[in-house]
# Entry
Amino acid sequence: MTQTTVTSRTTTTPTATTPSGLRSLHLVRVAFSLIWVALVVTTSASLVSTDKPTATASVLLVIYPLWDAVATLLERRLAGTGPMDRVGAINVALGLGTAAGMFAAAFSTIGTALLVFGVWALFSGAIQLVVAIRRRRTVGAQWPMVISGGLSVLAGGSFAAMSASPTSGLSSVAGYSAFGAFWFLVSVIALTVRGRREQR
# Structure
């Protein structure tokens, strides 16, 4: 549930194009998350921490952080935010590293996957929180992403803690993604409202 590239302070053009690009990207992220949640619920929601991931669950777990890394790269193109900065590069590396960790977890247990997912959600949420706070002046309407980032940090810690519980499973991860989709949708609405106010 992250957005990562920070608008450059040294250029003025991206400021005008960022809101529209961010809305488009956020809508794509909403669609991806809802499809991902539906697939998890219909194929893997019954898996608990002591189970070994099925092939389908493994693919879904690898795709999620990998998509976040791709979305960070897409943000630069769609939002017109210029060259990728250090925070964006860190988030891409984090997503790719987590995808690799999920691939390794596919040969272990769901509990291991929850631990990897929890660590990723915590750090990616922290990055999202930082980016949203820095973006308030250049883009505005960032309060949904501030809330989303903060909740991701809390959820990540919770996933890491519950990974050792024999009753925890992938259904909780699906809930995390669903809430992420909700906050991205709220962000789209907030950016749209702000854009209309500025046009008046």
Remarks:
- DSSP finds six helices and no strands in the chain.
- Residues 13-199 form one domain.
- The CA atoms of residues 59 and 154 lie 25 Å apart.
